[in-house]
Amino acid sequence: MAKMKKAPKPKAQTPKGFRDYFGAEVTKRTEMLNQIAAVYHRYGFDALETSAVETVEALGKFLPDVDRPNEGVFAWEEDKDWLALRYDMTAPLARVYAQHRNDLPTPYRRYAMGPVWRNEKPGPGRFRQFYQCDADTVGAPSVAADAEICAMLADTLEAVGIDRGDYIIRVNNRKVLNGVMEVAGLAGDDKEAERGIVLRAIDKLDRLGVEGVRALLGEGRKDESGDVTKGAGLNEEQIEVVLKFVNANDVVKSNALIDLSEAIGDGDSEIADVIRAEIELSDNKGQHTSDRDDIGDFVNSQRCEYLRKLVQGSEVGIQGVDELEEITALLSAQGYEANRIVIDPSVVRGLGYYTGPVYEAELTFEVTDEKGRPRNFGSVAGGGRYDDLVKRFTGQEVPATGVSIGVDRLLAALDAKGRLSKAAVGPVVVTVMDKARMADYQTMVAELRNAGIRSEVYLGNPKNFGNQLKYADARQSPIAIIAGGDEFENDVIQIKDLILGAEIAKSATLEEWKGLPSQYEVPRGDLVAKVREILAGQGA
Amino acid sequence: MAKMKKAPKPKAQTPKGFRDYFGAEVTKRTEMLNQIAAVYHRYGFDALETSAVETVEALGKFLPDVDRPNEGVFAWEEDKDWLALRYDMTAPLARVYAQHRNDLPTPYRRYAMGPVWRNEKPGPGRFRQFYQCDADTVGAPSVAADAEICAMLADTLEAVGIDRGDYIIRVNNRKVLNGVMEVAGLAGDDKEAERGIVLRAIDKLDRLGVEGVRALLGEGRKDESGDVTKGAGLNEEQIEVVLKFVNANDVVKSNALIDLSEAIGDGDSEIADVIRAEIELSDNKGQHTSDRDDIGDFVNSQRCEYLRKLVQGSEVGIQGVDELEEITALLSAQGYEANRIVIDPSVVRGLGYYTGPVYEAELTFEVTDEKGRPRNFGSVAGGGRYDDLVKRFTGQEVPATGVSIGVDRLLAALDAKGRLSKAAVGPVVVTVMDKARMADYQTMVAELRNAGIRSEVYLGNPKNFGNQLKYADARQSPIAIIAGGDEFENDVIQIKDLILGAEIAKSATLEEWKGLPSQYEVPRGDLVAKVREILAGQGA
Question: The Aminoacyl-transfer RNA synthetases class-II family profile domain covers which part of the protein (chains A, B) (predicted)?
Fold first, then answer.
């Protein structure tokens, strides 16, 4: 430790945007990550742990024209190399695969879980270090790999405690969007900037609505503060093509409503029921009241049919729709019906590097937000196919697809559903009445621990007994053990049920309280048995 | 992802001194950390996860007279603050306790596990990122807290698979050493430099032997390469005092040998047996052939008696010996006899910040080193009491004691003892004979996974079937499933026992091999049952 003579006292603070995690915050996350790893492992994925530090060059954020790597990463110069903390798990995977490709199986299925770092402005609930939990398949060109990730994502959500019906996995394909661009006359290298603006505009559909997106596709949009976002400058016809894609779900639903009224008009109640269920499903909640299993598949096929018409004439667009149909067919064969995994053209996902199927897991149950309003929980995981990432290193295109789970959001969701293991149980506290008897107290905790019971001796200053009970309270201790001179003489101990005690304290009068009905005197030899009995009673 | 046009291809490499961990390397570590956490939790310790990044100021490595923080840490400037990666778990704990002390229980028992970073020259087996696994008690002044950590360390080693008898926890006390310094006339602020040299010299006993230490205590020492290390400049008398301490174990043993010959001379065979066992134990292996439980206690008391004589006249020295006796008494009462936890004056531990008891866990079994020579496995954990670390922040002295487990060394030890779970089982591989049947293959793996069996469909290019079997081999797959046109027509599948197949291939002739006795044709409906049967057979 460096000498700090005469220096002012250092501040005891985390750096801005970082935080500490205590007790159950840590163990609940560990437990969830272990559950996720078990599913990934069953699917044949292997663990990979890369170092937190990478060269900036390998991470791919290096901009040669500035003195420092660009914003977004924590980077520093070390022996003339620029090093950085990883900002996600995908860039290190690309580096690992390029570095070790001769020793790794192909395809290479790997999972990775751990912290990543972002040098971004911190905000409420936004930290500069957070957990990611990824699974990727590298070297598998077929959409069977994408379908597998979607199936695994569904299994994972159920394994950690999200019920079927409480989540929906929405799948789209970038190729369909590229086909739409082509049909709208936005193909070609010279239109890259416009395509970028269109992509970002579509990604904002949820926030801006159709009219906002329409403005961004055209001349641009002025927001409430007066700031202007430049538009893609498309003409009316082009905008209509893109909006037909953006509105696909609504259009399919409108068509279904027309079909429904026709079916009712025709008196065909069976078809009408199917269409009603289809419309329910189209509301994106993944739930419908019909008992027919094929409703989801019907929605998927309706949407594919619509998309196929939309991209007519674009080879890549047609290929995208074919792939979507293949994915749903594969998933359906394994029992993942469209009430769990649904085709949804509104899923774009912002990242520029996706090249094929993209997918997103949304939790469909409602929670109340900070203002007490109900809202959907929203997205907890997402991913897609990115076939170009390894190419940076090797020059060869390597197909890859993968998903990233937002660990903190998923934990929050489980918490909201009451699916996390109950508040961590505090330890049994053996209090200290007589410091000279420390060996006896230690022997008591040793017995309890050997019986698998979490327990500890009070190791603070024992002079003030009240402080010991306050400590037990702060530790959320279920039971306190008390033994002083009298007890040792008579070979007994006092066992205090702190949970029951707290309940009595809430309701009892002082006179009743003095009766101490939550405290038991038992023979010393019955320590473990009596503690077990009380703990069992508290758990009931 | 930044555009890399015209830029040269980035190198796919970890930064110097960093590495990747694959598959079982990751999962075995996770498993061990979970086992350790369970013991820590049972002892009442709470998890704490601090961020990887701290301010240099809080870490305490800042030297105001240089432009950059000193060597040893990875540090960089960010918005005029110097940030750094934590280099251990203790400095962040001191910061956390100072920052949150009003909300934390006192005493605060916490454990922390995760990577730390050192900006040091990498070497073989020495990496710049490695795991630590710490448990500390903050705010408990009594040596009962130190004793508890020693007991917990013993339980932890046994929980992860180190047998009793294969480890020894050695305990010493800095106060005894301070007493020795005082007796040798090395007390006082003006002797701080000398004390530092003495401390470092003693810490090198294992490597340099007594004569090397003697040289460092005196004028200095020239090593084989001719480099000179400056000595402490003590006179003969001072050197003798320090060496009596350094040699304490040997002196106690010599005294025992004298006692032994006397006992034999007197024909007192019972005492002779006790002393023989004592001598065995003194060899620091923690093992003796006697069936007497009190041998260890006897050794501890012999050593304490010797140390007490050595520090006569030094108040702090006597206090140190008293504390050692108290620790062994507490541990003995809980059943931790001295064949597990032994007083050993040769334990110094280099870190300057220890102020009281210090302890070290050594594995006593032999392994063969890289040159095939047997050697003791050595230390896997260590720690001690440091009462000054929090004071840096608050000005108030806060007593603390804790242990750090060298995760990688402990894993290596378990590996050497064959105590790690067996080589991770590869997945059952469902091969692809007919790409159009992908949904059928996916259905097979879905059945296997739902039965809890790790399995995957081959997702590479299926054209060359040999590649699929090579892949299964690279995945250490136990079983391959094969189904083509004939099989689908007859509603059967081929199940290939790859473990048995490999054994046959080793010994069989080509003709026998062609008989394929390790391959079974079963009805499609028997997939899961037959795979289970084969896996069970392989496990036997």
Answer: 83-427
CA–CA dist B270, B267 (Å, integer):
9
Which residue in chain B has the smallest CA separation from A471?
A: B105
Phi, psi of A363 (to 5 degrees): -90, 130
CA distance A223 to A461: 62
Give the distance from residue B266's alpha carbon to the nearest chain A alpha carbon, in angstroms: 38
On whether A88 is known to bind a ligand per the annotation, the reply is: yes
Write out pLDDT tens, residues B186-226.
988 888 888 888 888 888 887 888 888 999 999 888 888 88
A&B contacts, CB < 8 Å:
324
Q: What is the DSSP letter of A72?
A: B
Smallest CA-to-CA distance from A148 within B468, B461, B438 is with B438
Containing A272, the helix (H) or strand (E) segment is helix A269-280
Candidates B177, B174, B149, B156; CA nearest to B35 is B156
Work out the pLDDT band at A69, boundaries 50, 70, 90. Answer: very low
Among B423, B428, B526, B530, which Cα is nearest to B477's? B428
Q: Which residues contact A34 (CB under 8 A, 6 or more apart)?
A: B30, B34
Contact B354, B386 (CB under 8 A): yes
> How many percent of chain B have pLDDT more than 90?
51
Q: What is the CA radius of gyration of chain A?
A: 30
Task: Please report the ipTM that was assigned to this predicted complex.
Answer: 0.88
Tokens at B70, concatenated: 């000193």
For A444-491, write each residue's pLDDT tens digit.
Answer: 999 999 999 999 999 998 888 888 989 998 899 999 999 999 999 999
Peptide bond into B107 cis (omega under 30): yes
Superfamily designation of domain A18-141+387-424: Bira Bifunctional Protein; Domain 2 (3.30.930.10)
What secondary structure does DSSP assign to B51-67, as a single string? -SEEEHHHHT---TTSS
Phi, psi of A214 (to 5 degrees): -60, -45
CA atoms within 13 A on the CB side of A336: 31
Please indicate whether, in this complex, the C-beta atoms of B53 and A129 are within 8 angstroms of each other: yes
A353 is in an annotated binding site: yes
> How high does pLDDT run on average in chain A?
86
Q: Where are the domains of chain B?
A: 428-539
Give the per-residue SS3 of A440-503. HHHHHHHHHHHCCCCEEECCCCCCCHHHHHHHHHHCCCCEEEECCHHHHHHCEEEEEEHHHHHH
> What's domain A428-539's superfamily in CATH?
Anticodon-binding domain (3.40.50.800)
CA of residue A465 relative to chain centroid, distance: 45
Question: Measured between alpha carbons, how far is residue B358 from residues A359, A505, B34, B172, B241 in Å?
Answer: 54, 44, 26, 5, 21
Using CB atoms, which residue from A44, A449, A471 is nearest to B42?
Answer: A449
Nearest Cα neighbor of B39 from B168, B155, B162, B169 is B155
Strands A220-222 and A228-230 come out as antiparallel
| Residue B327 confidence (pLDDT) above 80 | yes
Q: Please, what's the b/e burial string for A276-285 (b: 16 or more CB within 10 A of its CB; e: otherwise)?
A: bbbbbbbebb
Mean pLDDT value of segment B471-487: 93
Q: Bridge-partner residues for A222, per DSSP? A: A228
- Tell me B102's DSSP state: T
Chain A residue numbers with beta carbons less than 8 Å from the beta carbon of B27 are 37, 41, 47
pLDDT of A70 above 60: no
> A44 vs B446: CB contact, 8 Å cut-off?
no
